[in-house]
Batch of 2 targets.
Target 1
Amino acid sequence: MLAYVIRRLWQMIPTLAGVMLLIFFLFNWVGGDPALVLSGKITNKEQIENIRKQLGVDQPYYKQLGYFAFEVANGFTCTYRSYVDADGARAKLRAEGKPAPCQAVRSWATNEEVPKILVTRIGPTLTIMLPVLVLETILGVILAIGVAYVRGTLTDRMIMMVCTVAMSISFLVYIIVAQYYFGFKWGMFPVQGWTGNFWKDLTTYAPLPIMLAIFVGLAPALRLYRSFFLDEINHDYVRTARAKGVAEKVVMLKHVLRNAMIPILTNVGIALPGIFVGSFLLETFFSIPGLGREILVAVNRSDFPVIKAATVYLAMITMIINLLVDVMYKVVDPRVTFK
Amino acid sequence: MRTALAAALCTGLLWPCAEAAPAVKTLRHAFLNAETAFDPHAVSDIYSNAITDAIFDPLLCYDYLARPAKLKPNTAAALPEVTDGGRTFTFRLKPGIYFADDPAFNGQKRELTAADYAYSLRRLYDPAVKSPWLWYVEGKIVGGDEAHAAAKKRGLFDYDAPIAGIETPDRYTLRVKLKSTDYNFIYVFATPQLGGMAREVVEKYGADIGAHPVGTGPFRLAEWKRSHKIVLERNAGYRDEVFDAEPAAGDTAGQAILKMQKGKRLPMIDRIEVNIIEESQPRWLALQAGDLDYGNVPTEYAGAAFPGGRLAPFLARKGMTGQRFVEMDLVYTYFNIDHPVVGGLTPERIALRRAVALAYNYAEDVQVIRNGGAVKAESAIPPGAAGYDPAFRTAAFQYDPARAQALLDMAGYKDVDGDGFRENPDGSPLTLEMTGEPDSTIKQFNELWSKNLTAVGLRVRFNLAKWQENNKQAKAGKLAIWQLAWSADYPDGENFLQNLYGPNAGQSNFANFRLPAFDALYDKARGMPASPERDKLYAEMNRLIAVYVPWIPQTHRQRSEVSHPWLVGYRKHPLYTQVWKYLDIDESKRGPRS
């Protein structure tokens, strides 16, 4: 297993290189010119060129790509320019007997350090998305096993119909309607807000967005998990268990549930990286200072350092979670072997 | 029980009680977009500027209630002495003004001096700052451009090297010398970019200066959760300043505010909490719920909030008050005069542009697309700006499709092949190319243009791209027609007319309009102070715009704002994004918050 994990870790390097190439060329082809975003109302060509020079986007592509690789290798905590001490700032600090750290990569728009942006925005995102994933999975599994148990009945059909209708309505509509009625009209939740205090946020500002995300995510999860359970219910081992007189509850919870957990785990594994990015719709409508909203702002501002860091971060998380999910298969199903 | 005990203790029988602390007056407001940072020289968005405006103190400011906007001294003892035929501005500072405390001052009180303003001016020239406000001073101050060029060459700006046009003869005197006469340069001294900035603070925080704004203004930054929440607190060391203003004698609302607030010490509120709420619905709901004290009514709710132009009863019942006012801005469509299809100064090209202007239904723009939230523009200068003439009218910018058709026929733009669309006078196909952005509002404008132009037989094609990309193409002179808006940087028509000044082609003059007659009028007007004579020159320039049609002035946008009854003395200023210094809050009237 260790050899398998090490091999998978090595495989991450070319994958990450591919992601970096893709984001670099996509940004340079379709992204706006950052110098024009940063320049004022009245600018001339010289000023635009000065800004491009300051940002380093006047360099040839291969150099920019090299700097990008250097930044990724250093976790965005050191720019190439500060590493080679291009402006002598570190040498000056050393001469003064002061610590001379590398300069972290900074946002072009706000000048904030990029690693700090990721670290400070991830908390609110997880405060919303982690409960959503956990509750959605638990509720989805419980309801799906119940619906599978009464498969083919009027209850099953009615629930499936409700799920289909729920899935056909846009998430935005749920947000707008719920915010108006639950937040404004009936005053059950705040319309929007966030304090930075974990418990206050979790108990006061997060419940409505969490409920909405669960409500929207539950319908497809329920339909999917129900199909996993129905697949298992029709297998021979289930029929054999029933023939042996095993109670239906035991059949469902012990045999069917355990085998259906493999595809459920795969599904949760696919959804897991998403919780680290968040829902930009929820974050913008409920004024939650999360990562999804930050990425959206960065895209609108052509803030390439933030876009680059967020993309690399998401790619890394996705690869690591995929590896963890593969390892989890072994825990859930001892028949799985690593090659 | 506890309350009773506390009351008993407070009777003074047992021991004297301290007086209850006065309620902290907190103003709650929301921005529509995230701020960037608070370095006044480096930021250009209006939200960051609103904050720097509360922290930094320029030499001059605008009177809160005077309309039209009027300059008055802020940290300066008086308005500047303008000598040398409008080329030298000499300011004398009020002594005894101090910066808010900061570790950069090593525990010492730091007085504001003329050198701090000189430093601000120099910083605009520093290439490393990448200041979007360089245009305020570029080509204007004696020696400034040379210092900028030298810094670009050396890679470092020398703040100790003298600049001939920026002098501080003594601790409290600042003298700025211009290369040529520019009476409007005085407005630069009322912007937050020209607030006094302490050099030692900038040097201490280096690249993080945007997170450490330290000024002499009425507020200081207390808390900042980037892109989420900004908290300002009263600057405890703010100088002695009391409310005073000069509303016009017939300005009832202004006089009422003056009567109520006159003599009160500024600022009156203790704390300002600004949240970033990008979406219209939560912002509007939070405003109605009392989570915000005042704010702009999002365009999509403006009709419901002000039916028939009056505040809706459901808002009035909450005790809210409303204001609607025309912004000092201009929405216009420009033609690139260098473009092979729509450009040029030949009679047929002028006729084509005039026909496009006559084909446009301005009333539909105002009533349908803007939902009544705009007024039709009659010239390039908006109401409130010096040089605006409410009587100015021209037949060139009125909806008259019949005249447009006649003009096109006369100029030779006829439908030769019978496909319903006109061809060029030489018989070649004619397609107008309009540029826009892929958003819902621009889509409505494009539909209106398409309908109006098709009605007069002109074929139009729309090229959609992100605003930055369009901006890049416009600067390169590659666009033919593009709709833009310009908001006033200062209250003078020159700020709008400079967008058609020949030497500004490729910069702010996207139309690449180079008309010697226009440029001569502009040059002459720039050398004159505001006066009826100068207004005549502005009117003449407006007439040239109507004749050659490099622009179609469309509308001046109207803004709708509401405020709660506990907010005292609020009135929107035509130039300031915020007027927090002049506001008071009656906390006893504040309702329960959601």
Note: Residues 329-557 of chain B form a domain with the Dipeptide-binding Protein; domain 3 fold (CATH 3.10.105.10).
Target 2
Amino acid sequence: MSDVRIGVYVCHCGKNIGGVINPAKVAEFASRLPNVVVSRDYMYMCSSPGQALIEDDIKKYNLNRVIVAACSPRMHEPTFQAVLKRAGLNPWLLQMVNIREHVTWVHEDTPDKAEEKAEELIAAAVARAAHLYEITTEKAPVVKSALVIGGGIAGIRAALDLANAGIKVYLVEKKQSIGGKMAQLDKTFPTLDCSKCILTPLMVDVARHPNIEIYAYSEVVDVSGSAGDFKVKVKLKPTYVDWSKCTGCGLCVEKCPGRAPSEFNEGLGFRKAIYFEFAQAVPRKPVIDPRYCLWFTKGICRVCSKVCPVGAIDYEQKERYVELNVGAIVVAIGYEIYDMSKMVEYGYGKFKNVITGLQLERLSDADGPTKGKILRLSDGKEPKTVAIVLCAGSRDEKHVKYCCRFGCAAALKHVYYIKHSVPDSKVLIFYTDVRAFGKGFEEFYQKVRSWDDVYFIRGRPAEIFEDKDGSLVFDVYDSNTGQLINVKADLVVLESAVVPPKDWEPLRRLLKVSCDPGGFALELHPKLRPFETTADGIFLAGTIQGPKDIPDTVAHAAAAAAAAIGFLLKGYVESVPYLATVNEDLCSGCGLCASVCPYDAITIEEKEGRRVAKVNMIRCKGCGACAATCPSGAMQQNYFTDTQILSEVSTLAGGAK
Amino acid sequence: MSEGRFEPRVVVFACNWCSYAGIDLAGTSRIKYPHNVRIVKVMCSGRVNPEMVLKALADGADGVLITGCHPGDCHYISGNYKTMRRYFLLKKLLKQLGLEERVRLEWISASEGERWARVATDFVEHIRRLGPLRLKEVMSSE
């Protein structure tokens, strides 16, 4: 260690750091620490001249360790590692010190203490840096295939983009048809395109694509392996119909006497016990719902089996499992609408004429329970006064804090549905703010505002009561006029809040993806890397990352697919630098390390007549559990050796002065 | 400690994926907490062995906080469960030394910047009430 030559670089980050502490003074302090050859401060260390400054110093002063005191290593560690590489140094001879997120951004009220803390953190880094060493990584090939979980518009777009790039795609969808929420919509804002007309051709493209294999009515139940080489177990739920024989003729559905509430129609109207998800389903194959099938519930009927011309009905069918091997995973499982019955004041679930926006979509759809006529559910009459409530459950401390990002524009579209179906109706929109932020949204908003008998009222309804005739009465405080308004409406439409799907939590844990406070998947960076996760090889498409409208969902999905394509076509993954390494002289072959390894990366092998631990460089993910467990100190973790951590701890515990 | 109030020195071990990210988020969100904490990054809380905790106390820290992902959320599948088991064993040893109040294990997720600030504030105040440990002075005088 006699020839450790350290350069210390203290960044101002403009005023972010320099506005709280004095970087020049801190750099001067660092220059007096052991092994420090050169110490400087600079306005923006990550800028080109900042990077060049370090690069030149490495050559000029023959530096072999570099300390950059700036932002979080989670931000710019790769930036400065690249500087070391360019200057011919191994990138793991860099040590970042986080004096922005951990110091100046949180301690600006006590600048003296902040400066002292920055100095101590740098002193600890200097102590640690003396023990850094060069780290090399290994490469392993990537399996050129991808799993897309979820077959809504996000999953469809991601699957098509991946497949068009020549990648084999497995698309897993929990329902019997792909299409997702978009298939349930009648029209899309702000253009009022027919939703299915733009969606179903893409669904057919997916089904026909030679590179895409659809697993419908299926769920991911286990994920093992790692980026580039995931092993995924998929459960194929029993459909009681042999899809390989079924031609999708629909005779069974036609003849089935069983009736069940239609999920696709959001509980409005009925479907059969054997049913297609919807008319344009892809794959167009039916499923028997054993909860409503007379054969499963009462042991009678078997009509479907009798009429099926190809003998595809199989009441004995069991769930099956397939194992897939993929290099990357795209999560596109979408969202669910918030359970509106939790907002007891609105009476959803209690009053028939209080419905959700998604239910209104089903009423407006020509293929829906009312054949496209907007009618009251209580008496089948046309509603003459309709109240649309925005932010139902959204932006509400008691329910969902965040914005659903499409409720406002959907409400404008819903005004169109209502006025189109019942031209002499009056529509009242109760809003908090109208957020018409997307392309063409403001123009659409102005157009809807100009229509006759459409009123925008700023306020949230108080408790809703049901009148004898099934209409709804409630008070609203109009915050624009300062008046309390009493409203009587024939129909109330709730533009409901949006939450992650219920099955996300178990899947999230299988994938090791973090979540945000709303429960949605946490992206790698909220601005720069919104479609990647902290788990390598796992990408996010669409609303599982957070609420989005369709254009944003499609853009996000295409971006996720592009990132996955880049990852897969690079062709290799590198082992993590933080690998476990064995000092064979110290190792007694006790095997404790192997017992704690979560990846089975350690084996105990015979070597020259004794037993020693051996680490598989590709399997090891660098958690360090083995190093913490090893009783003899033989097992160490690169970049986090006992000596490195202890020297840092000792300085921080004892202080720098 | 020339001024009146005792300013404790607290060493924090933070895992890269959850807690360190959560602490970063407190910074990005400008959520203030006491300056007394000094953060040591590890890839996983399961990397922290008892020696590191004891070394911190022996070399001058008044308290040690170990932070990791919430149970079930570990980036490395089960590292935090190892941390938890090791922590309970370590607590037994610390109790014999009369130091069990000075070490704490907390789960901080990547989205819990506010929770981190609460945990840090609470722990620093707790250690402030306990007073200085001075293990380094005691040990060097013997």
Note: The longest helix of chain A spans residues 550-569.
